[in-house]
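Schema walk-through. Below, the input block comes first and the output block second. Nothing else is stored per chain. Lengths vary across the set, and this one has 294 residues.
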Amino acid sequence: MTQFSVVHPSSADVDGVRIHFRVAGPEDGPVLLLIHGYPEMGITWRKVVAPLTAAGFRLVMPDLRGAGGSARPLTGYDKSTLAADLAGVLDSLGIKAPAAVVGHDIGAMVAFAFARRFPERTPRLAILDSVIPGTDMFDEVSRDGTKVWHFHFHQAPDLPEALTQGREAIYLERYYHDMAFNPSAIEEEAFEFYVRHFSQPGGMRAGFELYRSFAQDVADNRAWQEQQGPLKMPLLALAGSGGRYATRIGPMLEEMAQSVSVTVIPNAGHWLAEENPEAVADALATFASQENAQ
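--- output ---
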């Protein structure tokens, strides 16, 4: 993909698990840790690489365990463990604290867990079009089997793997299409890249494990909230104007954080960084630069 021509791939061994990641931008620039969701991987950020690196940021874009070029172990898909994986990636690069930790979809749940586990390494947090386990909104959304049917389907043992084996392209195409304001924003080359990786042995199973860990994620976040209180770092919420969370993501995050601002991304559904990368890059650069100026 041409947008990734300036990106340098690498990997780190984190407690015996290989985590693949890509780095772009000046080595001395403020760091943005960009965490993808499901069913995607680090290339979800490909369209924001150019504007964010041009603004002087260094980008670290991991593939979560189970995705892309990372290992696919049988366990460790709770968001706290995934957050620890990414702390290990930053350690391998000698990065103590990014300018901001950014997560989309499932990656937003990981970013939230990262901020909880490593608040000293999270000066600012950005949550992109997601619900956070442990909030009232997560409980409400999870009960609605029509809008988030995949929450339930993915948690069923073994059945999702059996039904999607050999049909990965059919399943993923429907997934991307139904949650998009502009489905063509995920171009054919990117779609084929996603399908190729999720079709590898264990690829779909690893993705489903992200959902099977939700009960643990809820318990972890509620325990953190009880022990630590709300997050104290500034938090930016981004939601697509054509998505389902534009009016609700702010109140949800106010359950868990002291300082929340919301930006609605126009002409976008769920896949914000792919549907309107210019607006996403501008919002993230402005947000992260506020911290740098302090």
